[in-house]
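Our collaborator T.R. sent over the components below with a one-line note: 'Predict the complex.' Nothing else. No constraints on interfaces, no templates requested, no preferences about which chain binds where. So this is a plain run: every listed entity goes in together, and whatever single assembly comes back becomes the starting point for the next discussion.
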Amino acid sequence: MSQLLDLWSIVAVSAGVFFFLAGTVGLLRFPDTLTRLHALTKADNLGLGLVVLGLLPRVSSPLAGLKLVCVWLLVLLAGAIASQLIARTAHRSGPKA
Amino acid sequence: MSSVVSAALVRSAIFLMFWVALIGFSFSALLVGCVAAGSATWVSLRLLPPTPQRVRLGALVLLLPRFLWQSLLAGWDVARRAFDPRLPLRPGFVAFRSAHAPGHLRNTFATISSLMPGTLPCGEDGNDIIFHCLDVGQPILEQLAAEEKALAHVLDEGTGDG
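Returned assembly:
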């Protein structure tokens, strides 16, 4: 059982790291502000979520697990709102690289 | 009890629970937490006054797997395009005629859709929400309409007691 949980942690955290990398590659390769926002918000939210899911079986107490989930939710909410605000500003000020 | 008072009580309790989850439980931390939760409640009542809108918790739980699946697709979509040497992007703008009036429900929809594959709300034009899309060749309008319909079951506007 504990080996299965270890395997889950390794797979989920590695997948999370993959999506963080994808978000960063997107940030560097995508052509303008708006497409880069897509890369950052979507890939990084998923990456963080997978890292949190991978770490959940390893927490010392349920409260620590709740804390991890809360951090994910806060980042999700902050990312969704900040990306909309940046997108609105970028859209208003016209297409720029 | 007036709706503002009950909303304030519920919200401050939620903020305080959030504080305890993040900081941990101790007397000194709880003192600071009470001040923080009180301030957060005051700001939330000013920015988001209680409305007669009801969230159906059962429907919300049903929506969760769909939301998580869409997040996974969104992340995968970005990763696929970012790692592809040809960088397959067809970015552009799409106007989506929202079924909801401007306000809380529409904002919730826009916020959720910003986490969906390939769409990013970047403004409004009358009844339309303007979305920036990574690939305008995708069936974006159909996808957004389906999301909006799924969300409409969760948020019930104008009925209930908040």
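Summary for T.R.: The CA atoms of residues 25 and 81 of chain B lie 45 Å apart.
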